[in-house]
Design goal:
This protein has about 290 residues and is of the alpha+beta class. It is built from seven helices and nine strands. The strands form three sheets. Strands 6, 7, 8 and 9 form a four-stranded antiparallel β-sheet that branches. Strands 3-2-5 form a three-stranded antiparallel β-sheet, with no helix packed on it. A two-stranded antiparallel ribbon has the order 1-4. Strand 7 and strand 8 form a beta hairpin.
Length: about 290
């Protein structure tokens, strides 16, 4: 009975020391007497020779290097304060172990040096205006590519590089504000001048078209009035030639209505004047 128990315990110990598991979020290296023999170990349950093999596991998830704000100089020899961070993960676990000993702290230290060199180089090519208000996305893309290439020897992949904030020292901030304010004021004056010029041009064009429209209207009005007067004269002439006595009588009645339209009108005329030819004002002759 004791031998069975001993065998069972030995088998249990052998299974415990001879197996290991690798998680989905891990990368592992197998050693044989201190020498690396396997770096491409898939997740799951695996076997090893006790006392001969040992396994080291590393976190394969995305890690974050949150850099302290650093000062960098632009092409104008002005300092800017940059706050940035890096996202990275293990790509080649063998290189990762041999270069930085598989330690995230040492990896962050090396990546910090690489990132600072990249920031120093890229900011040294740009002006303050380009750094503050330029295409920051393009700058971060360049930094990610260069940092990833430099970090390849560490066995890690740089997933992302982000610039969280770019601040200016107080003295630089004031000078940049004054320069940007002057630039905006110059642009505003230019836009106002261009707008005033456009307004004057539009107003002059509107006045010219107004004069043309009024001239055409007066011309058409005179033409229509002349045609109307001619037509009226024609009608009057036809009427007069058809009934000259009636037309003369009608003209006289119109003249009487206009002459005596007020009570205080006074005329001193001879009773037999031509004006009263349709009034019988004189004595009747025998």
């Amino acid at each position: 009975m004791s031998s069975i128990v001993f065998v069972a315990l030995f088998a249990l110990v052998l299974f415990y020391t001879g197996t290991y598991t690798v998680g989905q979020a891990q990368k592992a290296i197998k050693f044989r007497l201190g020498e690396i023999i396997d770096t491409n170990i898939a997740p799951g349950l695996h076997f090893q020779w006790p006392l001969v093999n040992n396994v080291k596991k590393f976190d394969a998830r995305v890690q974050t290097l949150d850099e302290e704000p650093q000062r960098f100089m632009t092409v104008e020899k002005k300092n800017v304060i940059v706050d940035s961070f890096v996202k990275w993960r293990i790509e080649n676990v063998g290189d990762y172990y041999t270069t930085v000993g598989g330690q995230p702290a040492r990896t962050n230290l090396r990546l910090s040096e690489i990132l600072r060199n990249g920031l120093r180089s890229e900011f040294g090519k740009r002006t303050i205006n380009e750094v503050v208000s330029g295409d920051r996305a393009q700058l971060m893309k360049i930094l990610q590519r260069e940092t990833d290439q430099a970090a390849e020897s560490l066995g890690v992949e740089v997933v992302d590089v982000r610039i969280k904030r770019v601040d200016l020292p107080e003295d630089v901030s004031d000078s940049v504000y004054q320069r940007m304010s002057a630039e905006r004021e110059r642009a505003a004056r230019q836009y106002r001048a261009e707008g005033k010029e456009a307004a004057e041009r539009i107003r002059a064009e509107a006045d010219r078209r107004r004069q043309i429209i009024l001239a055409d209207a007066h011309r058409d009005a005179k033409k229509i009035r002349g045609e109307g007067d001619a037509k009226a004269a024609e009608i009057y002439a036809q009427t007069y030639s058809r009934h000259p006595d009636f037309y003369s009588f009608y003209r006289s009645l119109t003249a009487y209505a206009k002459a005596f339209d007020r009570k205080d009108d006074l005329f001193v005329l001879s009773p037999d004047a031509e004006f009263f030819r349709y009034f019988d004002l004189g004595e009747k002759k025998p």
